[in-house]
Queue: 2 jobs
Job 1
Amino acid sequence: MENLSRRKLLASAGVATGAAAIAAAPSVAQAALDHPEATDPSGPPPEETIVAYVRDIKRNEVTVMSGTGEVTYRDPVLVKRLVKAAPASGQARK
Amino acid sequence: MSSHREAPEISQDPVADNTDCYAFVSPDKPDTVTIITNYVPLEDPPGGPNFFEFGDDVRYSIYVDNDGDGKPEIEYQFRFKTKLRNPDTFLYNTGQITALNSQTWNRRQFYEVTKVNHKRGKSKVLGSDLASPPCNIGPRSTPNYPKLANAAVHRLDSGERVFAGQRNEGFFVDLGSIFDLGDLRPLQNLHLIATSPAMGVDATATLNVHTIAIQIPIKKLIRDRSVPSDPMSAKAVLGIWGAASRRKTRVLDKANDEHAESGPWVQVSRLGNPLFNEVVVPMGSKDKWNAVHPAGDKAFAKYVEQPELAKLLPVLYPGVFPRLAKLKAKRADLVAILLTGIPKGIIPGFQNYTGSVLADMMRLNVAIPPTKSKPSPLGLLGGDAAGFPNGRRVFDDVVNIELQAIAGLTYPLVNPDYKPDDACSAITQGLTPGKNRYQSTFPYLGTPHNGFDTPAGPKG
């Protein structure tokens, strides 16, 4: 239920294409997620960004903000991925 | 000061720092209420080339509670947008600014006013692309400043009048004396660390501020859309306060010289009664106070009931406040003045009670007409029911009023057997603000000081 709600939020914020592509090719997507690739930003941030942050690692809580909305989910998989992708403190990841 | 730089976090965010809130029945249009909220404390007039302005990323709010629950039924929101004509000059203006559309005025601000009806959950944009005036640069750049400011008073189709821009700082205070261990001029000879008495110093006399002012027909604010004429009627009393909010996150992308914001609006500053957060709420709770609404002020009531300043005065002025030193009871007088309003039966013919909800709001009884002949800057303490703490006019001496009240002068309102110390009524800043500080028409704060002549150069 929590994942469904999160997908609905992301879809309403205009990132449904990416989510749909992952659903259509789960094995490829899973491989990409297992090995996140650091890259340079492709352009300036949009005027209204979607911002997510890990609020509480122990409770697997991530807060997602879009527009003036804000929802906190408990999503162990997402939190694990974000923690894995995060650079060490003070380091720029390349 | 009233609420200038009064809390650790907001002291680092001037454009969102709500410094003063005024609310009064307009003396020249008594069927309206004028509400003023000021921002950007301590503006030094020559502070260019990036002169003072509102924050494009701040949402400024004026709240009105018309049923006494400490929550707003009506909100006016102000959002600003800065426009730059010429990015290739460092100058604010490249020639004289003689009109709001002068091509030589490089960096301008425009704003949108939205009214939110919280009871119905509806909002409506009342005005867009409303021009703010420039800052008062000097006689060459802004040769006729009053004309520019008058042009920036906008009448909205919905009946309100609005102004947003630089004005003369109306709040007057001997700041240096208060924060130097409460060494109140001219009472220094009575202080624990005594010096010779001297006249008060008006620390804000040459400073400007940024003002958001709105004049609203009274009937638009009253719960049943009437114009109350009976001061004893509960519906005649409005609770009013100002606030500023920022988005929860801001993403800085220096690589692209851009930034973006996301998330809900988070309140970072608010102000109802002057000096509440400044001298009543302790340092460790000030930021939290700024972030909550008045309906939650029960949590701060203990600081009103036993104000720190009332304990300090007898220590700082040995032997001067002996009765105050012995007063241990909860200060129900201050709770009434600051958190509930003064109920019927305390002061003949007057009340501004909003009920039992403890909430720091400016309480204005709109059925009390403005005092046109010799209004007292001491407001209710001076026998003038049209002044603070019945709302607040621009010239009310709120520092003296609150110092005297905290020193015990108002405690007999709830305990007639208490006799205040003789020194209570002797407390004075000894300040009389200059005439140019105010004006008789909207927005009531005077023309801002210009940067060329302020501060004045050496004489001779």
Job 2
Amino acid sequence: MQKLTNTYIHLYLPFLLVLFSGCASYSLDKAQVSLRDDFSNKNFESATAELDRSENEEIYKEKDQVLLNLERGMVNHFSGNYRESNQYFSEAELGIEDNFTRSISRGVQSMIVSDNSLVYGGEDYEDVYINVFKSLNFIHQRNYEAALVEARRITFKLEGIEARNRGLADMFAKSDSVAEAEWKPGNRVVENSALGHYLSAVLFAKTGQIDNSRIETERTFRAIDDQQKAFDFSSPPSKDIKKVQYGNEYNLLITGFSGRSPTKVQNDVRLFVGKYSTYVKLSLPSLKLYNSSVNRIEVVVNDSLTIPTFVIEEMDKVAADVYNVKEPIIYARSFTRSLIKATGSTLATKEANKQSEGLGFITWLAGVIGQEISEKADLRSWQTLPGKAHVNVAKLPPGTHNLTINYYSSQNRLLYSENQTVEIGSPNSLSLVESLYWH
Amino acid sequence: MNKLTILLLVCTFAFIGCGPSQTVNRVDANQQTDLSGKWNDTDARLVAEEMIPDALTKPWLNSFKNSHDNSPVLIVGRVRNESMEHIDTEVFTKEMERAFVNSGEISLVASQDERVDIRDERIDQQQWSSVETTKELAMETGADYMLIGNINSIVDEAVDRRTLAVFYTINLELVNVETNEKVWIGNKKIKKLIERRNYRG
């Protein structure tokens, strides 16, 4: 009897641990879907309530804090709570920095349980977008000095990413003995942000830092070039980009966001192999891009002047591109993990079979259930990140102006319209009009 | 490796993330606490410690005293943050103000932001305070010098992101309000080397 009890403890406790670790991840998937629904309806109150509920119910665990702060930062940004938004984005930024030091225990957990055990450390492009949105928050608050701090951080981070990409490219080039492929930075993954550079160029120009603005404008062109190499991206008019270097020629920055970030979906593969009907479950994520119906955004000032905007960055495609680079690693890890689980389950079944056939069957079944529940694709991603960024700058006379922001489809059909007022101060000031249509 | 060892290992890894809850200890305000490598109270203190004696011992003060009957009046202007961090420059400018006032050598007037509230109060007094206690309008002391400055930073990061060098340079200047003449320039440089670990438990 004592021997039987020991066998139960040794065999089933690890299964139970694995099983419960996997369950929690499904709640987060549901919470992400719910948040997306609220955000798409511009129901920011409900989105905030959903995030509060998820936090209170510990659906977002300690390892998901960066993700939670990214979502909270974005919801507060589009709700107009710029101070709060910056607090959450700052927390997310600190979290990303902190997660540079990888946790060994979590790494081991991810090999035993699932990738959901890993800390959500944030991607490089997410780290840059944090500063982009923080900068926009500070412009809304008319704190240009703080907005410039963020612009400098954008520049610094993007320089670092470029250096790392270049380093990686050099490494690949050296190790490529066949030397058929030309390893160039930027060809594989777009982690350069035209939006980030553009915003920095605007802020440097408006504060009289002409040379810095010129450099950032050049980098904007390079980032656009990178996007064109990586995916189908139509180049914005170069004269509109060059214009940002001359800070005295505009006092209004227009930013419109359309579309939404891609979602991750789970694809399960189930196999029974060998003499012992070893059960193997592979749970692999794949990325689904959202097809935005928006083709262009126009701003009509006081029912007379029409200002067009242009797409400076396709954030959804950047996210997809970064994911595609990581996909083989994710798949390899998933395959190794499934193999470990299946081998463990088979060994345990063999051991239990020595006691009795019934115990062997129960052990086998526990193995199947354990794998079924614990093996789960990591579907975590920044849900509230918009898909595309449209921008332009314009000069308006001082005073209050009524703006109508129109979103059109490729068939020129008006999809959405929004009215805003903007206060234009002194010629050297910078006002920001920002709009969102998450479709 | 027996089954019990495997079980123990699994449990250890499963619960290894559960660390103790936070603890709080009072420490000396001058204790150096570098947690993230970012600008902190120690840096602000180092700036104040360098700038205060420098400003109080340089020739401008004696030159002013020799040509005037009163001590110079200072106003704290804007110290621009041109770094990559959000830095509250008031932490060291307030420390400098305190040292200047306590030295008895320099007088200070309220800064641009501070005087708004005081002016409101004075205007309010004209209507609501007794005649004997009402303070007069247009009796403010004009400053002789304005303290201005900037903070710059240069950040250099290794490609692997493990090592980060941050160099701060803080410039403070005293400018004669009447003539725009710069009578004192103080500079403090701080360099930090931040090493990040690749792994933790």
